[in-house]
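ARCHIVE CARD
Drawer: 12
Card no.: 0347
Subject: one protein chain, sequence and derived structure
Cross-reference: see card 0346
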Amino acid sequence: MNAFRPWRIFAVRILAGLGWMALSAAPSLAAICPRVTCEGCAVALVMEEPRYDFDRGYGQIARLWQASGGNRLGVRLADSAAMQVVGLTESQRALSFMLDSARERQPDGTWCARPSHVTFSVGLREAVVHVARDLAQDPCRRQAVLEHEHKHLSVYRAFFTQNEASFRARLAQAVPVEPLMGSASEDEAHQVLKEAIRSRAQIVTAGLFSELGRRQEEVDSPAEYLRLSTTCGGLIDPNPRLETQDEAAP
């Protein structure tokens, strides 16, 4: 049986009162690190022209694809028994940002940070189109592979242009409204804020990049492989299967 102990209630009231006095004596959070909006945010659309590489062999391009996950044309050549990666479009899905932050020292000696300006860059950056050197020496086959890879580039350009407003709206959500508190130093406060924005930006744009991947897969359609099978006297086997790491030529 729990006895009623009025002294406990009295003690709690005293402690609550002391806590209120301490809070009222300290500067308010709003005065130290006020809430912010994304008025100081900007989104820049990046569309760089690609660079071309015709100096790598089949195996080298295959290893690049395995490392980068770019959009590649992996086919069985009509005159070869082995699967080869004959073309690859490597690209950086540019999602980066520059951050200016305001950092304030709090009464307890820790630091808080809030964004004062954020510039996001979104689009196609550092794109490289690779065509296997064995094919690049044949003008017809070289052009056929380039036409295919240019379709991937066109998807990138159209997607980012059409979705610029969506990227802008979603990236505005990546900037914290509340200041981030409790860092041990001014530099740490900036880094904590930077990582928070990076993580949020990846989350809010994940759906858009998934849709981009789906559109790129549509380029590698059965109809496209059938077209290539009739190009240059039969560039590829019309019924290719995707190569595995063990099948990549050296």
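Annotation on reverse: Residues 186-219 form the longest helix (34 residues). The radius of gyration is 28 Å.
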